[in-house]
Fold this sequence. Notes:
This protein is α/β, with parallel strands linked by helices. Helices cover 34% and strands 24% of the residues. It is built from five helices and eleven strands. The protein has helices at residues 14-26, 44-47, 66-78, 104-115, 156-172; strands at residues 4-9, 31-35, 51-56, 58-59, 63-64, 86-92, 119-121, 124-125, 137-138, 141-142, 144-147. InterPro entries: Flavdoxin-like, Flavodoxin, Flavodoxin/NO_synth, Flavodoxin_CS, Flavodoxin_lc, Flavoprotein-like_sf. This is Flavodoxin.
Amino acid sequence: MAKIGIFYGSTSGITEEIAMTLRQKLGEDQCDIYSMEEDFDEYDQLLDYDYLLLGCSTWGAGDVQNDWRDPLFEMELDKPDFTGKTIALFGAGDQVDHGTEFVSALGKMYNHFQKLGATLVGEFPNDGYTFQYSSALLNDKFVGLPIDEVNQSDQTEGRINQWVESIRPIFLNN
């Protein structure tokens, strides 16, 4: 069984908590986990895994979290080949105070890795969220798992469980 690489950037700790929970639910022996700030050296680390969970919160006007900026910029220049890699995205956002760009960083990451040849999986329904706009919507579904710990923390565990069950056959039956 192939190992899963979980890479996350987290400023306030929410995306880190999600990453740790995902590792626990998928099996700690199945997943290696990396903080983009503390454990990440170069994007080649991502290429060591066929299965990736990438976590990023949204900041500013739909921007990726700071720890992801340099690696994404370097990949934009070098255009590494992610063909054969399966990626699922997760992230945190605030749909009330930042509802005009709710989890839009996931949309940016989706577009970025799709251009590099990756197969992206793990879409999630937008039911139960209240926001104005998100570039992470594709065909009325989010391109990954959106978590709003600020306004809907009571739904976090159920959403994570639902998402893990949807990706489990792809990531663990390989």
